[in-house]
Design a protein that fits this description.
heterotrimer; A mainly alpha (343); B alpha+beta (632); C mainly alpha (313); A: 343 residues; mainly alpha; 14 helices; B: 632 residues; D-Maltodextrin-Binding Protein, domain 2; Dipeptide-binding Protein, domain 1; Dipeptide-binding Protein, domain 3; 3 domains; five-stranded mixed β-sheet
Amino acid sequence: MVAYIVRRLMLLPLLMFLVTLFVFGIFSLLPPKQRASLYLAGDVPKSPDAMERVIERYGLNQPFHIQYLRWISHILRGDFGWSKTAQRPVLGALAHYFPATLELALWAIIPVIFVGIWLGILSATHHNKPLDHFTRVFALIGWSFPSYVYGLLLIMVFYASLRWFPVGRVSDWVLRLESAGLFRNYTGMYTIDAILNGRPDVLADALRHMVMPVLTLAYIQWALLLRVTRSSMLETLRQEYVMTARAKGLPERAVIYKHAARNAMIPVATMGGLLLIGLLNGVVITETVFNYPGMGRWAATAASQLDILSVLGFTLFNCALLVLGNLFVDILYALIDPRIRLE
Amino acid sequence: MWRKILVLAAIGVLGIWAWAQVPNPDTYIEATIGDLQTLDPAWHYDTASATAIFNIYETLVFYDGEYVDRFIPMLATSWEISEDGRVYTFYIREGIRFHYVGVKTPEGTIVWKDYDTLTPEEEANIVPGYGELTPEDVVYSLRRAVLQDRSGGPIHMILEPLLDIHAISELAEKVGDEEVFQIVSEAIKLVDGKVVITLAFPFAPFIQILAGTWCAIIDKEWAISLGDWDGSANWRPWHDPKAEESKLFNVANGTGPFKLDRWVPGEYISFVRYEKYWRGPAKLARAIIKVVPEWGTRLAMFEAGDADVIAVPRAYVAAMEPLVQAGKAKMHGPFPGAIAQSGFFNFLVAEGSPFIPELGGQPKPDLLADIHIRRAFNYAMDLDTYIKEAWLGEAWPVGGPVIKGRLGYNPDQPIYPFDLEKAEQELRLAWGGEAWKKGFRLVITYNTGNVMRKFAAEMLEYNIESFNEIRAKEGYTDPIVIEVRDLPWPTYLAMMDDKQLALFFVGWLEDYAHPHNWVHPYMFRTGAFAMNQNFHVIENVEFTPVYATWLPAKTYATLQDLFDELVDLAKREPDLKKAELLYFELNRLAVDYAINVAHIQLLTRRYEQPWVHGWYYNPAFPGTYFYVLWKG
Amino acid sequence: MKTFLKLLKNPISLMGILLLLFFAAVAIAAPWLAPPPWPREPYRIARCGFSPTPRPPGINNPLQGIWLIVTRQAKICEVRPFGTTGEGQYDIYYGLVWGTRTAFKVGIYITGMSLAIGLILGSISAYFGRWIDEVIMRIVDVFMAFPFLVAAITLAAVLQPTIGRGIVTAMIALIAFGWMGYARLIRGDILSIKERDYVQAARAAGAGHLRILFRHILPNAIYPTLVVASMDIGSYVISFAALSFLGLGAEVGYADWGQMLSFARNWISRLNEFWWIIVYPGTTLILFVLAWNLVGDALRDILDPRLRGRITV
């Protein structure tokens, strides 16, 4: 097991190299003038040499390999460059935005997994009855629309009309606390920091801001989780050992949860990787709609404005995250299903 | 399970209670689309940065109420302009302090402290000149801006009249850094405590430029303490910095009514009231500008009362109407904006462009060089319907580049009416009849997401392609094909700059309120748009003046030469009456030669919560001026 | 044959099949249902003006309106059975009808290609194991590590001036970054089946690799993958909506359900006034995705040998 983990981790640098080379390659297909627009701040060039000067200034016309090697040498010294779209160093942007997205994703995982699996089990145990149909259609509607539809609907009802849950990460008064130095940011995640600072009011505020984005993120994923859990459960419920357990007279609840559910979780664990990707991709639109300053929103802005340094930094980070995430899922997978051997 | 629900409910109730407790009657909140680029006055060019700088810093002169061409003293108490219009002398106000002043500590070092919260002891230890407005600060600020001249920045506006050059680096290449410093120091200098600026030629809009945020006055000592230029001949290290390299990138110390509180890039910028502001403190205690790119979210913030003003893109104005009807929003306007939108003809599309026009199936890069085609497009553009449907009637067709409200705007300038018959006539004449017989292909481009420009392009497409029916009846089967394509902004800019776009729609927001800032970009060879339109392709142009009758009738080598000469004459003309006639002439030429299509001046609206008061409209303001607002 | 009859017997799957048939019929009959204003460009959605604000349906009974259009008694823009979108007055009825063709094309093509690539790579990887598995899984990692939306945006910026927007570019992007899910899924299932008794038996009996893979392993391992695939067919249409913002996806004004939704994005906050911009495209989308799901589910219920004859809980 340990050898397996070490081997997987050792491949990480190779992976990062390949992926960033890939990204650099794509960008090098772009004429320098397109990349120059990033530094003109949204305006048309107002003199004939404006773009040329910008290209000179930022070294956009140097050959691809020179730019790439220069970037690598900077990376190795810990200098990831300046993110024009985040207006801070790339590393700083990652450190600033990642906790926000992480916080969102972590809080979203809970309803995604628990409610998703619960719905799946519910559906499977009431196979072909009205409850089954209802939950399936409910989850399906979640899958059918891009997330901004739900996001904006939720905002319309729960924010604009009812004023229950606001948009953004925290209210202005929390920001003022921070400005005044009365609230320390230890992790960059407001919910955890609120506990560390001993401020339940900040915790409540942060949670209230997260209700809608979390629900939006979760709703999209429920459909997938429900489907896989349901089909897996249906399979498992018909297996021999379940028949045996029932014949032994075990209560239905124990049959479902102790015996069937555990084995049904195997495909779900496989979904883990997809879920992670789904969440990380899903946050892009969710963060934009809810004005939640996180990685998704930043990455999308950086890509559309051709801010290559940001895109590279984000890609590296994403790379590491996914490799570690997949590794974790694979290990989990092996732990759940004793028949799998990780070579 | 139930315990979980109870806990969640408790948190929810607590949260709602917490929210209801938070007041913000003295905080003005605005939600906009884009973030600022920098707080360095000399570096910025975008409106978001300008808005912040506008509230934090001040300039020598300020706009008089709602006028864009009348000025009141601000940091200058008065000024004189010499007879020949080239020398400006400014008397600088005394007794003004910046937000942060330099205080001498017992150890002998100088520390910058908030002027509002000084203890009497600290106040006694303020170092003279440190955080105090002096004429040296003014000279320093202007010289610094001129010498910084960052690529793609605003300084070319100042350089043009000041030294008649494009870029400082251009001059430095010719005469060397030391000499450049001498020249700049001569042009902007201190004489007996007065600031004297000498221009290369008389330039009427110079005062306007000085009122712009790029001429904001900073404190020399403060800038130097941050590591900025020390004012000496060694200016090169601070020349053309990247945004983040400027020492004034994310810090600010101005004389304006608001201080920088906090700027979190990409999220918000907050300001606090400068209590000891020299004109008396503002009524608002705080102001926040939030970056909220999603329209639906901004609207929700407005409805929830969390934003006092939101940016409303023209296309979604209908969504605000119910709020105005119900008295939940105030609408100001529509006002004539300092902004126009036009279609630009490129007379010669560059090689290698995927949008090279075709005539009869063969590439014809100079398809649009024929006057008849351009006139046909103008006659085929149904501006009335376009303005009514797309802009809700809130735009004006303008003849020639100069917009209404500026010197040189000619209300009697004829413009092309919507007339499909005339359009047909012109098309038949185009390229000696070839265009009508053999058909042609043209791609109209706009930048992705700009729905208004898309509509203009599409209307042209419909009307021009409608001639295919008539042509078919005459036996001409090769179609006229107009394609409308959108491009992402970076691609759009790059292709425009490479002269690869054939007919493109773009907007122009005034830098300063003077006709020169219209004819230059639209007609001068180095103008933002004209430089991508290749007017030089039209040769042997005969000119007979209609308005500026003192000019000789002449033949010019190219159309560009004609435009250049007139633009140059107009900018140097000290006599307002003659200048006006010169601009009339330029407008006429622009229309006669049909260098644009669908050139319209846009009107703007502003939507506010009913409890916001004090706002007034001045088209030259880059954004909201917090000083005059209050909530109640 | 037996499978098909079984499908028809099950009421749920019957509903799914009928829905799919309905959509297929709409797709085939598109030129009659919604006559194209530009005969050479049928996928160009009919435009009813240039106002940025959505216009309501021109007739109270949409079915009556559709009848008028089909019998050529009225023009689409006179009737507007489903109203028009914002940002250009695109007729929603037209967009939905022709968008059905796009939905089928896009869904089947992308799913088919991604599934094929994913199945091949995933099976090889899981079956042969060891270093083959490593290499293929690392390739999967590279593709997965690449943030999809970022890749899509960058691709759009690079390809725009040359190829221009169009469904082809979007489909390439979705295939290129969609096959990994299937690969991992099939690999996971094969890994767990690989060691089972009947597979060992077949190996012991001397069966060749391909035979074992195709006869014994895949038929048993493929169900979760098919379940996901059946959902995906419906979902690619939705991905197009997300991509429209990023400059990728169909050209503006191309008949594609995702486009209809993207035009609606900025008017959702006023849904009470402009309900038709979501209700009609939304219902269509949901029914389409539902149809594929029901059929996919029913297929699984029928084909899975472990479920045969024992469907009771």
